[in-house]
Every structure is written in C-alpha cells, then in structure tokens.
Sequence to fold (97 residues):
Amino acid sequence: MIVYTLAASLHSMGIGPNPVEPTTPPGFDPNTVTPGVAGFVAIALVAIATIFLLVDMTRRIRRVRYRGEVRERLEAEQAMIAEGGPAHPEPEQPTER
Fold:
C-alpha cells in the first residue's frame, strides 16, 4: 500500500521513469562493430588457460586413480602375508582358446 502511495506522489511531482530512449550517433552502422584484436587476444587467452586447466585436471585425476590401485595391491599383499600365503602371488596365466 505504501509503495503505491509513494509512487503516485512521485509521479505527480514529475519524478518517474525517463521516457527518453538513447540515440545512436549519425552514421553509426551496428554491423561494423567488432571486438577487434583485444577481444581476440582475450578469448584466445581464456581458451589456452582452459586447455591447460583441463590437462592438469586429467593428470591429477589419473594420479589419484593410480594411487588407489597401488594402495589396493599393497593391501592385498598384506592380507596374503597375514593369511600365511606367498608375499607375491603368481601372475595369472593366460588361458588358451
């Protein structure tokens, strides 16, 4: 309620939204506006940084996965030793078809 009263009083005093729209300078062609060399360089730098970040992220994910595999192998070896089995299990022989 208070908002409507305030808006009506401001409008009656001539204070309100500006109906004047901005104009463009004479001879301005919106089809000729380009980002230029600075825009190209900025986008190129963002693309290069993104590629470096993706490569680094892939390397880190791969490293974590390999560490997990090594940890599982070590835990399996410790379990075999605890059971009294051989410390290094025999590698599986490929079956002939």
Helices lie at 2-12, 36-83. The chain has a mean pLDDT of 82. Residues 36-83 form the longest helix (48 residues).
